[in-house]
Amino acid sequence: MNKRVVITGLGVISSIGIGWTEFWDNLIKGKSGISPVTAFDTTNHFTHNGGEVRGFQPEQFIPADRLKFMNRATQMGVASAKLAIQDAALTSDYLSGLTVGVSHGTTLGAAQAIESVDDLLINKRVAGGALFYQMPPHTAPAAIAREFTCSGPHFMVSTACAAGNYAIAYAYDQIKLNRADIMIAGASDGISRIEYTGFNQFSAVAPERCQPFDKNRKGMILAEGAGMLILESLESARRRNVPIYAEIIGYGLSCDAHHMTNASVTGITECMSKALQEAGISIEDVDYISAHGTGTVANDRAECAAIKMVFGARYSKIPVSSIKSMLGHTMGAASALEAIACALVIKNSIVPPTINFETPDPECDIDCVPNQARKHLVNVALNNSYAFGGNNASLVLKTIFSKEQA
């Protein structure tokens, strides 16, 4: 349990960029990835915008004969894993001598495949066998494992919007417990009619844009994407002489056991407190908080109240931004992409903004880094994710070498 766990590779598929470089450049520019949905007809919906990944071409990452067996979430998961493996400078020969595991999260996973089967049945057509291969939720980590011949721990988690943090936490444990040498960890989700219709019926979707913490916020924007990270021990990374983005030093999990959709301030508070305690740090050590920040009235209010409870008078001095204002809500992939953002924040000491912020809300009077990125020394970042069902997960990331204020 004495092993230190570090991040050495990042893979991103998102509405503001494919690959972490494009993702990060657009993140700090405050670029929006929101546009009219094209994946399906939204005519009969209340809203019409989403965070689709327009430039994603899966055939660039996956052979054509395998594509038909993968739903969109799996395709993005495999592609982001490939990008992370390349970024970490891991070759197939090197991996073949190690215990490599996969830890993956999703909210709906195979939703698009289920919709395709449903369409065929309604039209009294026969669904091909390839579609049925796409339907089980475990197909994403299984496809990643096959791609890199990963025979180590294999895990799939579906804890809704917190799935990415849960998957990373599980992978962290596997390295700490010496059950794996390398873990490929993260999450993916493709935009689907099922989720789009459901959230519209909840009246939880904003008509045009996501405005976390703004007094006039109207809800989330549904999106898709994938984020995968390469985790290994500090000793392994130093032996390979590869760059290290950040160290993971702890996490906290909790379940509200309160309400299926409304977050509990007590549950969120407990989750953050657990994460700080496991990481062995105090509230004074946290330099940045990546908020769950969905843009719904209730969720933002609950998260801000919890931050105040945990950090006390210091809450107003900590930058707290929501990158969902740019990406949209990528469901299970959200906290994985936000963990990647935290690693890059630590690396660059630049905090991404919360865009679309116009009117302060007295109940959300945190420093939400409105509209423009900010240079800010970050040694420790806290990544928050709070999901339907009361599934809460907070992840703590830290720089390897402490940076001092110039």
Structure explained in plain terms:
The protein is of the alpha/beta class and 406 residues long. The chain has two domains: 5-240, 3-Layer(aba) Sandwich (Peroxisomal Thiolase, Chain A, domain 1), CATH 3.40.47.10; 250-398, Peroxisomal Thiolase, Chain A, domain 1. Helices cover 35% and strands 19% of the residues. The chain has 14 helices and 15 strands. It has helices spanning 20-29, 64-67, 72-87, 92-95, 111-122, 129-134, 139-148, 163-176, 193-201, 234-240, 265-279, 297-311, 324-327, 334-348, and strands spanning 5-14, 17-18, 35-36, 49-50, 100-105, 154-157, 182-189, 225-233, 246-255, 288-290, 320-321, 350-351, 374-375, 380-387, 391-398. The strands form three sheets. Strands 1, 2, 5, 6, 7, 8, 9, 10, 11, 14 and 15 form an eleven-stranded mixed sheet that branches. Strands 3-4 form a two-stranded antiparallel ribbon. The chain has a two-stranded antiparallel ribbon with strand order 12-13. Helix 3 (72-87) packs parallel to helix 7, helix 8 crosses helix 14 (334-348) and helix 11 (265-279) packs across helix 12 (297-311). The protein is globular, with a radius of gyration of 20 Å. The two termini are 35 Å apart. The model has no long low-confidence stretch (mean pLDDT 92).
